[in-house]
Design a protein that fits this description.
This protein has about 350 residues and is α/β, with parallel strands linked by helices. The protein is about 35% helix and about 20% strand. The strands form six sheets. The protein has a five-stranded mixed β-sheet. Strand 4 and strand 5 form a beta hairpin. The radius of gyration is 22 Å and the shape is globular.
Length: about 350
């Protein structure tokens, strides 16, 4: 089987452009820039163009989605840096073609640019690697633009999420993993085979890098016992049963787990949506008032639902989601005993079946 080529996110592109621009201001020119990713490793990103401006510098990076590109593949991500307003502060703005947030539930300020938290941190960390002295003295302003963003935005999920006027600057790992059913399924099987060969009887099935990071603080197992399953939850637990594993933790955030709770076993964003009616029914079972139930039915995202529940202290809601996930997944897992764990976005356990009281 041919290995699919990975790509890099719009967040990595924006980071690369910002870093290359600051390097140019420091008289460093190159055809590539070395970007530090969230997990600490580095990747070389080619620079399309980089030039000085009247007040700073501007660089363009071409988005490369790898062997499974989305609609932003080939888009030009332009990042400009100029002197800041406040010492030691890096402010990040959205320019033309970067969407504006109009609805809650995205973890971003309403009215602000759709530049997610991880890309923001990447930009700040990489700029400080280049010239922290200047940042401490004058600060920096960073503006990210996407010339074709207004045209590309309607082709993404942004209109449904209430992001208008362009695309989002995204990424949690900085890398785009190609979406291929056959290759991903083979990867899951191979990982489980290694765990079995190493005499392991327990695995942790995670939906991605962040949930794996949090799970490692909760469940102490050898590295090979952590299996990233992406959207293939049903397939993964079925394989655990086939391979005779004794126990499997299914861990993730509310978005994926809410889909699993509705009986969806392949949770790719383009193939399934969060069932707000189901979540409102769960809230009703937990004693939520009619006003809260209505808010959930009209919620923008699963994250928005989580915020509504937490803001109104609705007890037991997240455990009930985990219970439904357990019900659907345990029927596929055979003799493998499951434990379902939900994290919030800071890594705290907010729901589990069986009940786990540990917060990390």
């Amino acid at each position: 089987m041919t290995k699919l080529r990975t790509g890099y996110t719009t967040g990595t592109c924006a980071t690369a452009g910002a870093k290359a621009a600051l390097m140019l201001l420091n008289n460093i020119q190159s055809s590539v820039v070395l970007v530090r990713l969230p997990r600490g490793d580095y990747i070389d990103i080619p620079i399309e163009s980089c030039s000085l401006t009247e007040r700073g510098a501007r660089c363009t990076i071409i988005k490369d989605g790898g062997d499974d590109p989305d609609v932003t593949h080939g888009a030009r991500i332009v990042t400009e840096i100029t002197p800041g307003i406040t010492p030691n502060i890096i402010t990040i703005h959205g320019g033309m073609g970067v969407g504006v947030v109009t609805k809650p539930g995205l973890g971003l300020e309403i009215g602000g640019p759709a530049i997610n938290p991880v890309p923001r941190r990447m930009i700040q960390e990489n700029l400080r690697e280049v010239d922290n002295d200047t940042i401490q003295k004058t600060g920096l302003q960073v503006t990210v633009s996407v010339p074709d963003g207004i045209k590309l935005g309607p082709k993404t999920d942004n209109p449904r999420l209430g992001i208008v006027g362009g695309i989002s600057i995204l990424g949690t790992s900085g890398i785009v993993i190609p979406f291929s059913t056959a290759s991903f399924a083979a990867s899951i099987r191979q990982n489980l085979d290694v765990a079995v060969a190493m005499k392991g009887d327990t695995v942790v099935l995670t939906t991605g890098n962040r949930s794996e990071e949090y799970a490692k603080k909760l469940v102490k197992l050898p590295e090979h016992c952590y299996v990233q399953i992406g959207d293939f939850s049903g397939y993964a637990v079925q394989e655990c049963g086939r391979k005779g594993l004794e126990r499997a933790y299914v861990v993730g955030f509310i978005g994926k787990l809410a889909k699993m709770a509705a009986g969806v076993s392949q949770t790719h964003v383009k193939g399934s949506k969060v069932d707000m009616k189901l979540l409102s029914c769960i809230a009703e079972e937990c004693g939520a008032p009619d006003s809260i139930i209505h808010d959930i039915q009209k919620a923008n995202t699963a994250r928005h639902v989580m915020e509504i529940i937490q803001d109104n202290s609705i007890s037991g809601f997240f455990d009930k989601i985990c219970q439904l996930v357990y019900k659907h997944m345990q029927s596929r897992a055979g003799r493998t005993s499951l434990c379902v764990v939900m994290f919030d976005f800071e890594g705290t356990v907010i729901g589990s079946i069986p009940k786990i009281s540990l917060d990390i």
